[in-house]
Design goal:
Low-confidence stretches: 1-12
Mean pLDDT: 81
Oligomer: single chain
Number of helices: 32
Helix content: 55-70%
Structural class: alpha+beta
Strand order of the largest sheet: 18-19-21-22-23-24-25-26
Distance between the termini: 144 Å
């Protein structure tokens, strides 16, 4: 067969290559073993491959017998069945009269025709001969002819001859299909016979090949054993001799294989062992030399004594330690004999022998300390190692001193200290611990357990009513509190001890005991002061608020309560004139009187300087509060006999009732304060109850303050100017700047209304500076001879920025200082005369003029005119208004004008509205006048016309 011939050729080429590889590798054992195994593997593989190919061929024949022949027969018979079904369906089609059934049968015939074609195709595909192909083609052509004839028949008009022709064609097709089935069956029989023949041939060939393979494998094994066994025995003999130490025996030479290489390697190994032994001897000698060098250079003194007790060796350090040891080594002196005090031995050598004869620490004659450590040798002697521990001794001494200092520190600690080990045994205790617990010295010593220490404290009587179990439970509570917690222990003598404990690294703990009795008292004092006034001892605002909150919580379950706000009248003048010491004494006396007026269930608190508050509990009507208010007015109004003065004060009260007027402390205090303010307005030394209308007025005041703040922030003001007329020159000599506020809702707001509020809110300072800048800026547009007068509030004089503001305004506008006139009232001079004088002098240094406004309406002390550098006196309009009346006002005005003339001060009269008043003032010699007779205050835009009217057109424009 072609497969066998092709397989033989391939096997020949593979065998030739294997033989060449065997010839190349035959010189080594590994190669020989490899060749042997390759040969046997080749034989086995060849047999296996041939067997596999035979089985594959047999299988192929079997598959063809089934898959091709049998399947071809089945599909040929299926084609016969398809044609029979086509004829049957056609017969039913010809006899039926139902169109639906006829259409269904036509579809079935077409489907059967398609199936027949597919079956014939599969039968041809599975066939193994050309005759099957030809037969199938004839069947297909016959069926197609039958189909053509079938389509040409008309069921009602077909003639008998046509039906006969159709039947004959059907018979021809049946015969052709039968012939196709026979052809396919014949092919299957031929295939079976061929397969049986091939299987028989393969069995015979495999038996012969197996016998040949067994013979070849045995021959290869024989050759392999012969080439390996002899050399292997020689190598084993050489290895045994080397292991026995016979390194001088000859080693046979081997071949080029591994055994020969093994023998050569053994010869090399023998040579290496000899070289290694020589190197080891050399290294040992070198190590001995190094050891001797290390021994000589060691910082430890080493002395070797042999089994007979003679000193055999001593290094350089030992010779340095012991004088005379060198000679003892040289003569081999006995340590025992020297230690027993040999008569001929020097004392130093005797000391050396005695030192070497025992372990321990020895101090030499030169003060050095040695530690001697002896180790026995195998021969019965010993080696003594001497270490210089002089530095260590010094450190120990230093440590001892440190411990003494530590003991001193522990004994002088402000805290008691106990250090326990992991077994809760006392290790360290200081003197302060015994002092805290009043224990006799020596009663608590190291080694005691925790329970024993507690029993000492219990025996000292510090824990009355407590036993050992209670103290142990208390100690456990301290341990459970953790390292960050402090446990406070109260002793029978009233002392308080703060105990803290922390765990140490070795499992023990350290406990500290601090006598915090004084600290607790101080903390209690601090806690008291946190809720009480330090001066009077009364509750402060915080505690008072808590009391009010508590009263509010109970108000629904019992009767109501009242909240009083008290303000001592005229306390500030007393405090300023008599001093703070007298003021404090007066406050304490007033507090005592208030407490005497109230009940124990009531509360009195000090809220501020001279402000007090009272919480009156359990009242049913407002009359109950009024009774207490009248009593307070009476009692507090009585004279106070102090240590050095007798003082009389009054008191004004504001009262609010709860819960009718509020349900919060803030609301009640606010209402009481509103009532107090109303009472001060009505009459000092009285009381008023809070009314909702008061709150409405207060809210209106608050809204007014908000509007004023916004106006200051937005500069929503105007500056109007009223002319000042000079009677001597008969013309306008300047203008007074007057502030005006035109509110978008309130309309024109009088300065009498908003100036005091601005002073109270602290807005007058920025507002006054703004007016000053605007007035100076506007004055620069006037003729040079005209001046501008600006009012300065008393609050501005308390600000350190007044002089700076004036200087900045003059510099920014380039206005000459003599053209600026600052008007102040007499109240400025009363508050702080010294500071006011300094400010006035600084203003004069800037060139500004200073005038006293509203002269005669305030204190009118003539000393002010002498002490302060005024340039002008302004007579108040109240005097000018009544100048023509017969009530003596004329004489007052005449006196003021005369006083100004005498002091060389300009006199200006305000409020001139009639010609009669002007004539009177002119006659009295007044310098300047000002009032509605000349003009109302007008905006800056109207000033040119006003100047032109009084001074002429040439003077109206700068």
């Amino acid at each position: 067969m072609r497969w066998n011939r092709t397989g033989s050729k391939v096997g020949g080429r593979s065998g030739a290559g294997a033989l060449r590889r065997i010839a190349d590798a035959g010189t080594t054992i590994r190669g020989r073993i490899l060749v042997a195994f390759l040969t046997m593997s080749l034989i086995t593989g060849t047999l296996g491959i041939y067997a596999i190919q035979g089985l594959q061929e047999a299988g192929e024949l079997v598959n063809r017998t089934y898959d091709e022949s049998l399947m071809s027969i089945n599909y040929a018979r299926a084609a016969a069945a398809d044609f029979a079904n086509m004829r049957s369906a056609f017969a039913r089609r010809m006899v039926t009269r139902d169109p639906a059934v006829a259409a269904k049968l036509d579809a079935a015939i077409n489907e059967l025709a398609s199936t027949l074609t597919e079956d014939l195709g599969i039968a041809v595909e599975r066939s193994q001969s050309d005759r099957v192909v030809r037969s199938a083609k004839a069947v297909q052509e016959g069926v197609e002819l039958w189909e053509t004839m079938r389509h040409g028949l008309d069921g009602s008009k077909a003639k008998i001859a046509a039906w006969d022709a159709l039947d004959r064609q059907a018979g021809i097709v049946d015969g052709q299909i039968e012939l196709l089935v026979n052809y396919t069956a014949g092919d299957g029989f031929v295939f079976r016979q061929t397969a049986r023949k091939v299987v028989a041939q393969e069995v015979r060939f495999n038996l012969i090949a197996m016998a040949v393979a067994l013979i070849l494998s045995g021959f290869v094994a024989y050759l392999l054993n012969r080439r390996i066994t002899g050399p292997l025995a020689a190598a084993s003999s050489v290895a045994a001799r080397i292991a026995a130490g016979r390194l001088d025996d000859a080693v046979p030479t081997g071949g080029r294989d591994e055994l020969g290489a093994l023998l050569r390697a053994m010869a090399t190994m023998r040579d290496n062992i000899q070289a290694m032994m020589e190197r080891e001897v050399s290294q040992r000698r070198s190590a001995e030399t190094l050891l001797a060098d290390a021994l000589q250079s060691s910082r430890e003194g080493v002395v070797v004594v042999d089994a007979h007790g003679r000193i055999a060796l001593a290094n350089a350090q030992a010779l340095q330690f012991f004088i005379g040891l060198r000679s003892a080594v040289e003569i081999g002196s006995s340590v025992t004999a020297l230690a027993n005090g040999h008569a001929d031995a020097p004392a130093a050598l005797v000391d050396c022998a005695r030192t070497l004869s025992r372990d321990g620490e020895v101090q030499l004659a030169d003060g050095r300390w040695l530690r001697v450590s002896r180790s026995a040798t195998q021969e019965g002697g010993f080696v003594a190692v001497c270490s210089d521990i002089s530095v260590l001794k010094e450190q120990e001494a230093g440590l001892t001193q440190t411990n003494l200092r530590l003991d001193a520190a522990l004994d002088n600690m402000s805290q008691g200290l106990c250090l326990y080990d992991a077994d809760h045994r006392l290790m360290v205790v200081n003197r302060r611990y015994g002092e805290i617990y009043n224990l006799p010295p020596g009663s608590v010593v190291p080694g005691m357990s925790v329970v024993s220490v507690l029993e000492r404290s219990l025996g000292a009587g510090h824990h009355p009513g407590s036993g050992r179990v209670d103290l142990v439970r208390e100690a456990e509570a301290i341990f459970a509190a953790g390292p960050d917690r402090t446990y406070f222990q109260e002793l029978a003598n009233g002392r308080v001890v703060a105990i803290e404990q922390r765990t140490t690294a070795d499992g023990g703990f350290v406990a500290t005991f601090d006598d915090v009795t004084d600290r607790r008292k101080a903390e209690a004092r601090i806690a008291f002061l946190a809720h009480h006034d330090a001066l009077t001892g009364l509750p402060n605002r915080i505690l008072f608020s808590e009391q009010v909150d508590a009263a509010i919580a109970q108000a629904g379950r019992s009767s109501g309560f009242a909240v009083f706000c008290l303000d001592l009248d005229d306390f500030r003048p007393v405090n300023d004139t008599l001093g703070h010491v007298v003021g404090d004494e007066l406050l304490k006396a007033a507090a005592n009187r208030i407490e005497a007026c109230i009940r124990e269930i009531d509360t009195c608190a000090r809220l501020g300087s001279d402000e007090f508050a009272i919480l009156q509990r359990g009242i049913d009507t407002a009359e109950d509060a009024a009774v207490l208010a009248r009593r307070l007015v009476e009692v507090l109004g009585a004279p106070y006999v102090l240590s050095s003065h007798t003082v009389t004060l009054g008191v004004t009260l504001g009262i609010t009732l709860a819960p009718h007027n509020g349900t919060s402390c803030e609301k009640l205090l606010k209402n009481a304060d509103v009532a107090l303010a109303r009472s001060k307005v009505d009459a000092r030394g009285s009381f008023r109850f809070f009314e909702p209308e008061m709150d409405a007025r207060l809210q209106a005041q608050r809204l007014f303050e908000v509007d004023l703040r916004e106006a200051v922030a937005n500069e929503a003001f105007e500056v109007h100017y009223q002319p000042i007329y000079c009677l001597n020159a008969e013309r306008i000599c300047g203008f007074e700047a007057l502030l005006r506020w035109n509110h978008p809702v309130r309309g024109r707001v009088s300065p009498v209304e908003f100036i005091p509020v601005a002073e109270e809110l602290g807005l007058i300072v920025p507002l006054g500076e703004w007016v000053l800048r605007r007035a100076c800026e506007e004055a620069t547009r006037w003729p040079d001879g005209l001046k501008v007068a600006v009012n300065v509030s008393a609050v501005q004089f308390t600000s350190a920025s007044l002089v700076t503001a004036v200087r900045d305004a003059l510099q920014a506008t380039n206005l000459a200082g003599h053209r600026l006139e600052l008007e102040i009232t007499e109240s400025v001079l009363v508050a702080n005369p010294g500071a006011t004088t300094a400010i006035l002098h600084n203003l004069k240094m800037l060139g500004a003029r200073v005038s006293m406004d509203d002269f005669g309406t305030g204190y009118s002390s003539l000393s002010y005119l002498r002490s302060f550098p005024f340039d002008k006196i302004k007579i108040d309009q109240s005097f000018v208004r009544d100048l023509c009346a017969e009530d003596g006002t004329e004489f007052i005005v005449r006196a003021v004008i005369g006083l100004g003339a005498s002091l060389r001060m300009t006199t200006t009269a305000e409020g001139v509205e009639t010609e009669a008043q002007l004539a009177k003032l002119r006659a009295e010699g007044c310098d300047e006048v000002q009032g509605y007779l000349f003009s109302r205050p007008v905006p800056a835009a109207e000033l040119p016309d006003l100047i032109a009217h009084w001074n002429g057109a040439k003077r109206a424009i700068a």
